[in-house]
UniProtKB/TrEMBL annotation:
Residue span, Activator of Hsp90 ATPase homologue 1/2-like C-terminal domain: 22-159
A matching Pfam family: AHSA1
SUPFAM superfamilies, per the entry: Bet v1-like
Protein name: Polyketide cyclase
Family label: Belongs to the AHA1 family.
Domain of life: Bacteria
Species per Swiss-Prot/TrEMBL record: Rhodococcus oxybenzonivorans
CDD domains cross-referenced by the UniProt entry: SRPBCC_CalC_Aha1-like (cd07814)
Length: 161
């Protein structure tokens, strides 16, 4: 499992996941820059993602939905804030309805994904910051740590293929 550390800080409103991959950072970057590759890792194995729109540029929007084992669909979106290829990118991530409109009652996170090379591997750091402690606690209660860890775990198989 590539996830090496998970921590959350209710006072700082953050969830941080660190992972290590046996691949150059350009390869890890490509997974997020290519919607077909992103589909293979965005969501745990039992909730595979389908990327609908993928405007991976500052000011752009990515929309997707995850399909559960019973065929249930859960939509979400990213609003891209910044891109620094191949070292990282930032975006807001939120829950959406079937038309990809934000669900106002659900938490939104601001995310900073960074990639650095170290000893032939890539260290990825995923930091999600929430507006409130209640929002962070809500996603923790929903299983975000387990789901994100499983999703990130799929990157190893993708880089081997």
């Amino acid at each position: 499992m590539p996830v090496t550390n998970v921590s959350h800080d209710i006072d700082a409103l953050t969830l941080t996941i660190t992972a290590e991959f046996a691949a150059p950072r350009e390869r890890i970057w490509q997974i997020y820059a290519d919607p077909r590759q992103l589909e293979k890792i965005w969501g745990p194995p039992t909730y595979p993602a389908t990327v609908v729109d993928h405007e991976f540029t500052p000011g752009g929007r990515v929309t997707y939905y995850m399909t559960g084992p019973e065929g249930d669909k859960h939509a979400g979106y990213w609003n891209i804030i910044s891109i620094d290829e191949p070292t990282g990118f930032s975006f807001t991530d939120g829950f959406a309805d079937a038309d990809f409109s934000p669900i106002e009652s659900m938490p939104v996170s601001t995310n900073d994904f960074s990639f650095r090379e170290e000893g032939g591997s890539t260290i990825a750091t995923y930091v999600s910051t929430y507006a409130t402690a209640e929002g962070l606690q809500q996603v923790l209660d929903m299983g975000v740590v387990e789901g994100a860890s499983q999703a990130i775990g799929q990157i190893d198989d993708l880089i081997k293929s």
